[in-house]
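cron nightly-structures :: item 1 of 1
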Amino acid sequence: MISIIVPIYNTEKYLNKCLTSLVKQKNIDFEIICVNDGSPDKSEKIIEKFKKKYPKLIRSYKKKNGGLSDARNYGIKKAKGEYIGFVDSDDWVEKDMFFKMYNYAIKKDLDIVVCDTFMEYENHTEILKSNLHYSDEDVRNYIISYPMACTRLIKKELLEDDYMFTKGILYEDLCLTPTLVNKTIKVGFLEEALYHYLQRSNSIMNQMEFNDKLFDIIKVLNHVYKKFDENKNLENYYEEIEYLYITHLLRSATLRFLGYKDGAKHLSKLIDEFKDKFPNWQDNKYFKISSFKLKLICYLANYKIYSLIKLIIKIKK
């Protein structure tokens, strides 16, 4: 059985499409756990409508607002399934997503299965593949792949104790998903896009004003580093962890910070901290085979040539 956890907050505009895609899942024993995280809009009415129509599928809970991580953790504790999937309430999935992922997990005897993603923009759709499927060891690919929890089917027993979502931070997926390798190496990829990730301009990660919560990226990356170190796994996966810093701090965070008026002045400290921790980052085996675009941004960020990065951002827009 699979438990599909849907945290819900202020998404009445998208919730109907999300839940419709879930109740249409075929040929699989599953439950849908709707966690209303104190949403002030009409989401609860939509949940009740689906619960009335699909009483054997929908289990609903309403709680005080605590954020996405808190809602997911609440759902995990209520889940009855052997495996857990996560779907954000403004997204939707292919009708056979969980059938395919569960069957793949059983066939390959896996604790975690990862699929690819449809990135849904206002005027177009792109397929985002899990990063760098170069190694023969899937577990290494897992660490450096796109960390979104919603692209994973995870055995419930892995999500307990100190392996839960951290409350009150951004990048909560990155904080958890790579560290699960400390509990299992039975990981595999289903190289097919099955999850539709809506890119909303008004989402937290697309805000217009600089927010100190953006500094959570370094806290999260350092948490992952520490987790592997505590489990005496850092030496085994050093280049994979280093590559997480490269892609999420030196590339993605740089582009995000420089998109704000005061972003540049906050960025240099993070880059200096990164270079102190990984002085030979340019020799990283994954970085060496990365795209020209990623390398360009990283090199410019390393030398703090922010004006040229800003120009690239402007041209892209």
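cron nightly-structures :: done
The longest strand covers residues 187-198.
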